Amino acid sequence: MGSGNGLDGCYACIKYLMFAFNFIFWLIGCALVGIGIWVLVDQNFKSLVSESQTFAFLQYAGIVLIVVGSIVMVVGFFGCCGAIRESECCLMLFFISMLILFLALVAGGVTCLVYKAEVSEIALQAFQDSFDLYTDDDPQSLVDLVQEVFSCCGVNSYADYINKGVQIPASCKPTDVTDVTTLQGCSVVVPEKLDEKVIITGGVALGAGATMLIGLVFSMMLCCAIRNQNL
Predict the structure, then answer these.
(1) Rounded distance, CA 182 to CA 214, Å?
(2) Comparison of pLDDT for 113 and 7, the residue scoring more
(3) Most buried in the list 30, 94, 183, 199, measured by CB within 10 Å?
């Protein structure tokens, strides 16, 4: 094959699939940066962090998302350039970067699934510590925020407030619930919902890793085709 003829047949198809794949990948990077910025500026997240250092990881998570999103955008750029310009150099940079991201995502997804119980324990301990300090004169905003977000009341039930001699707060009375006695305690609701979110997060990470694997295969096939063409 001549060096100036370009790629033909199925390799030409792979070339444009690679470009489309990496353009979508670049958009995902933009989305990650946007989510990271949102986590850092959102008032609810700020309230959680300010009320308990246990939730300081949210701030770090936002920074990590911005960093990872920026890396993904750069990797997507390399992939687009490598595909359209048929550049071995760009494709190899893309392959190496994508492989590192792939391994990191799979490791992160597995970690989420393995340590999901620990996430619930940390969150519940932070809630319990704030609840122990809760009084009518000094309500803890972390407790109110958790009860509003998760639609729960007290540690075990609304009776925890009665046992403390504290008035049941408004955060235990969401607009769609008329009887506070029907609400479950946060020790039941929070782990269930957090486990669900962590499983979804881990599944998304593993799914994204599988998608990256396709990109790795395509990039290697395209790189080999370009190399053979230049022989």
Answers:
(1) 48
(2) 113
(3) 94
Tokens matching residue 83: 């595909």
Residues comprising the chain, all counted: 231
**pLDDT score of 47:** 66
Cα–Cα nearest to 210, from 114, 109, 79: 109
CA-CA distance, 67 to 56, in Å (whole number)? Answer: 17
Which two three-digit tokens encode residue 167?
């008035």
The span from the CA of 129 to the CA of 126, in Å, is: 5
Going by C-alpha positions, the residue among 52, 48, 20, 29 that lies closest to residue 215 is: 20
Tens of pLDDT along 39-61?
Answer: 777 776 666 666 555 556 667 77
Q: Flag whether the pTM goes above 0.85.
A: no
Torsion angle of C-alpha atoms 142, 145, 151, 155, degrees rounded to 10? 10
Give the pLDDT of residue 195: 80
- Contact (Cβ atoms closer than 8 angstroms) between residue 75 and residue 94: yes
Q: Using one digit for the tens of pLDDT, what is the confidence trace for 185-217?
A: 998 888 888 888 777 777 777 777 787 888 888
